[in-house]
Amino acid sequence: MNSMERRKNIEDMLMKNNKPIKGSEIGEKLGVTRQVIVKDIAILRASGKNIIATPEGYLIPNENKQLIRKIIAVCHDSKDIKDELEVIIKFGGIVEDVVVEHPIYGEIKAMLMIKSMYDIDNFIKNIQNNKAEPLLILTGGIHLHTISSDNEDIMNKIIEELNQKNYLIDEEI
């Protein structure tokens, strides 16, 4: 299999799967190393393919479904991460990413694609197991999320509860 065929296979795998696939898993199936897959993914992205890298692996989002998207500004401590994420997913929302503004590097964005309790538990375990600090540490708790939902009603419920829990940053400050 040449590199063009391999990239086509990678794209097909990601299109057929609704969940992220780890680079090492793709490499195993195609008989190459994870590093080769990382390079192939970079080439596919450069050619315009919408491939997202999440902590759980690579995925191509299903864009057939029209989702309502909103960028929210929030502020809380590390101890409240799980609660914040649970508020969003319990109504059926998806936490697509997290963004912080760094004084040197500018905007730092990490794709999350958290949409279930399973995803939240894995995210929290990854932070703990890797002894990593969440990005909100860089900004005193202030960060942005792109969240999506199936409809405006769900989005409003998410926003309302985040506001009740004082996670949302007041726009009038």
UniProtKB/TrEMBL annotation:
Residues covered by the Helix-turn-helix type domain: 6-58
InterPro entries, sorted: 3H_dom_sf (IPR035922), 3H_domain (IPR004173), HTH_11 (IPR013196), NadR (IPR026043), WH-like_DNA-bd_sf (IPR036388), WH_DNA-bd_sf (IPR036390)
Keywords per UniProt: Metal-binding, Nickel
Ligand binding (Ni(2+)): 76, 84, 143, 145
Keyword hit for Metal-binding: yes
Residues in 3H domain copies: 72-168
Name the record gives this protein: Transcription repressor NadR
Source organism per UniProt: Clostridium botulinum
